[in-house]
From TrEMBL:
It comes from the Bacteria. Belongs to the phosphohexose mutase family. This is phosphoglucomutase (alpha-D-glucose-1,6-bisphosphate-dependent). It comes from Thiohalophilus thiocyanatoxydans. Residues 1-20 are annotated as: Disordered. One of its GO terms (molecular function) is phosphoglucomutase activity. InterPro entries: A-D-PHexomutase_a/b/a-I, A-D-PHexomutase_a/b/a-I/II/III, A-D-PHexomutase_a/b/a-II, A-D-PHexomutase_a/b/a-III, A-D-PHexomutase_C_sf, A-D-PHexomutase_CS, Alpha-D-phosphohexomutase_SF, PGM. One of its GO terms (biological process) is carbohydrate metabolic process. GO terms for cellular component: cytosol. The keyword Cytoplasm does not apply. It catalyses: alpha-D-glucose 1-phosphate = alpha-D-glucose 6-phosphate. Its cofactor is Mg(2+). The keyword Glycoprotein does not apply. Keywords: Isomerase, Magnesium, Metal-binding, Phosphoprotein.
Amino acid sequence: MQTRTVSTSPYKDQAPGTSGLRKRVGHFQQPHYLENFTQSIFDSLAADQRHSLLIGGDGRYYNDTAIQTILRMALGNGFRRIVVGQHGYLSTPAASLLIRKYQLDGGIILSASHNPGGPQGDFGIKFNTRNGGPAPERLTNRIYQLASSLEQYHIAELDPVPLHECATYQFGDSRIEIIDPVGDYSDLMEQLFDFELIREQFAAGELHIAYDAMHAITGPYAREIFQQRLGAPQSSLLNAEPLSDFGGAHPDPNLAHAEQLLAIMNQENGAPDLGAASDGDGDRNMILGRRFFVTPSDSLAVMVANAHRIPGYREGLLGVARSMPTSRAVDRVAERLEVTSYETPTGWKFFGNLLDDGRITFCGEESFGTGSGHIREKDGLWAILFWLNLLAVRRQSVAAIVASHWQEYGRDYYARYDYENIDSSIAEQLVSDLRGQLTELPGQRIADFVITRADDFCYKDPVDGSLSEHQGIRILFGEQARIVVRLSGTGTDGATLRLYFEQYEPPTGQLELPTEEFLQPLVEVGENLLPVCQKTGRSGPNVIT
Ligand code: G6P
Ligand code: ZN
């Protein structure tokens, strides 16, 4: 095996966002673009962390080409053990697990998560470290710095390595292992949840699920877990065949994009007990009951409140964490359980230290992500199995479980408004104008709401003391309500402005109103503070979740 050193010149736009480097496929196809970024990842690692590497992706367009390039570069950079998912497949949660289980130095995951795929779609590359979690900011900053001045990369001369069968190939001192991407992950799920109970209720026809894999990576995982191990009928699974363009759809499990599943769950008669979906790389989840949507923030709170009913979590909880824009519902449960609830910036990477340090057991985000200490990524199928287990234990509907939660803790009505693809300069101006008013806002009354505090969220990691500034603007109206404004870090076109609205209603209040109706006055306050429509000429948000 020959290794070549190739001269290159740096690209200046290789700054990783909320979750790795994400661009249009065409952008990645520019000469040396992928190679440069991959070399920068390798160069960012200490010599003793360049021994073993996991590689896999969500099966989207360009996955296979990129994997062959990265494989050759890993060999060219002296990695001795390279583990690849069969067909190049690995869900993000499975990748996190495998890095931990096989004690690898890290992993490269190829995915643009919930963004559309195909030749005109998006592609992405992210690096996870030894703990199985996303690279922390100090590492992504370092990667960016290296990429901005890169002059060469190393690559082995090699024919494409066949990925369709599990096998081991030896090249000099280096070994490439093609492994089953599904088995270890399914085994872990079987340890955490009561598969026997779920299996019995499936067999007795007492429990039904509809799971939408959205033609993305979780199809093979869902077949193994729901069909093979739990005995659910084949008809429970929708879109379980991974396709490189996700069938032309948008693999984002939310009310706007999971239409087919929504139609099933909204049927007058015969809808399953649980409707669920996951995204492109399998780390997100959406939970639906019959004609009922569980907001991700409520889902996290309900899971924490019910953790003692689930085998893997009977021992009790260390603490919980939520990203700042996630509603405060979980804080109320944590308070009752007398454990700490941490508030972190958006991005799963901020949970890693808290999990590694034994401070939390559960964590979650409003962006359809929930997880626990079992791995260092959010985990779509895990969250869905948690709910399935909960339904089997409580023998109640999703709606009844959530309603009883609200009766106990009160309800945090919640909605996120997304203004996608707006001109970056307008978006930045809007945010900086609001930032400029922060000191004047406290004490102001707008309609029935009095601002008690306004700040630009800054997070000091309690474990390593690192500071992350400008993580979103928080406008607090006491304990009653909150508006959060931030720019998305995952878009590939223009800017996406997100407005998050939440308002608390105590157990004695009105718990069953439509969210839109209940939040309308607060949304008007938001428009008052941030004139998005006026400045962009839009009539409203593109997506409300
Ligand atoms: C990815 C990250 C999440 C994050 C989400 C939304 O899924 O893994 O941690 O919450 O993106 O990020 P954004 O910056 O677009 O709001
Ligand atoms: Zn994802």
